[in-house]
Amino acid sequence: MIERIYTHDITPEDDGEEVAVAGWAHEIRDLGGITFIVVRDREGQIQATFKEDRNEELFNKAQEVGKEDLVHIKGEVTETDQAPGNRELVPKSLEIVGEAESPLPMDISKDIDSDLSTRLDNRFIDLRTPEVHAIFSLRSHLVQSMEEWFDEEGYIDIETPTIAKMGAEGGAELFPVIYYDQEAFLSQSPQLYKQMLMAAGFDKVYKTGTAFRAEEFATSRHVSEISMFDVELAFIEDQHDVMDVVEESLRYTLKETKERADDDLEVLDIDLEIPEDDFPRIKFEEARRILREEYDHSPEDEGDLDTEGEQLLGEHFIEQGHPAVFIVGYPGEKFYYGEAREEDEYQSRRFDMLYKGLELVSGGQREHDPDRLMRKVEEEGIDPEDISFYLESFKFGMPPHGGYGLGLDRLVKQVAELDNIKEAILFPRTPDRLEP
């Protein structure tokens, strides 16, 4: 391994210590007899100061360094309030490990905004930008913190197939794949498999994985390849047990991320709010009433909320100090959702959760009664043979259960306050983007 430490680990208290760093020449300033090279690595930056009257040979070598060249520098740490981080390196050796072509595809050291398409075309360079790098460091902390909560609560981390015979959501939003001599599709969701595991006695499971939606879209909140966090739990009373899990795990995730990713949040200039109060839980009809009476907005689809409606509801509840809100009882639930009972106060046992005005979670109680399930399958025109493997699992004692899917890309977008969901994905896939 090349001798080095991360720049973030070098502090003014290391004054007089000899260290080695390796990274990219983020910024170069030539002031005649003195040259400053700001070296950037994964964790931060440090300034190396080359003076002609101190070491002419090393000073001349520094003149050969170009923007974004990869360099390896050994030197002595000096405490100074004139340098970023109140410390700098007095170099004793300099090696140019890899040269960068000039001109660069885009400038990442100056406050110059490139359009998103250009950034994605040159993603390897764009990802070197400290602000962009911070997004994905933040994302890592979010996922790690979320998985940690479920691990501590006794959930089992599972894997389900990426290639399936049919989609859990049905419809035309499926990517067909060549699978020997059979028709198959990329998975829309692990939904059916999560439920089968409830019949197998796994009780509580989660999955961090990928889903695919072959939708034609041109929005700032959709992509074709989606990162999802899926959860399923058994022996529940109703959908409120599922919402409790959503609320507790998200609060923990945000709290832990705020502590662990404080540097990333500072780079992104984000003051992450941790919701301390219970998330409001309102009926679907109440959500539409708020939109109609307070904003004069009525979504065209009477059984859903549109994008504008979600944003307006987000504003409404944020003003009341609630960044997250549950909308409960959506009509027209899919075949695997539990039917509303006579004693229910909601139209259905399905819910969505909005976070800062964007749908982040969809879930609810599932149907566990095989007769009711079969009736709903037939009502939706699904051929039972296509999901016989799934239906069979309900015949041998299926416990009451429920679950949800959380969009990880959307979570990152909202926490990092990004304009477009593609900014939250390393290499996004959309109808018009299949590379890099």
From TrEMBL:
Binds 3 Mg(2+) cations per subunit. The strongest magnesium site (Mg1) is bound to the beta- and gamma-phosphates of ATP and four water molecules complete its coordination sphere. It is found in: Cytoplasm. The record marks P84 as: Important for tRNA non-discrimination. Mg(2+) 3 binds at E359. Its main location: cytoplasm. L-aspartate binds at E169, R213, S362, R366. One of its GO terms (cellular component) is aminoacyl-tRNA synthetase multienzyme complex. GO terms for biological process: aspartyl-tRNA aminoacylation. Residues 136-428 form the Aminoacyl-transfer RNA synthetases class-II family profile domain. It is an enzyme of class 6 (ligase). GO terms for molecular function: aspartate-tRNA ligase activity; aspartate-tRNA(Asn) ligase activity; ATP binding; magnesium ion binding; RNA binding. Belongs to the class-II aminoacyl-tRNA synthetase family. Type 2 subfamily. Aspartyl-tRNA synthetase with relaxed tRNA specificity since it is able to aspartylate not only its cognate tRNA(Asp) but also tRNA(Asn). Reaction proceeds in two steps: L-aspartate is first activated by ATP to form Asp-AMP and then transferred to the acceptor end of tRNA(Asp/Asn). Homodimer. This is Aspartate--tRNA(Asp/Asn) ligase. It comes from Candidatus Nanohalobium constans. The lineage of its organism: Archaea, Candidatus Nanohalarchaeota, Candidatus Nanohalobia, Candidatus Nanohalobiales, Candidatus Nanohalobiaceae.
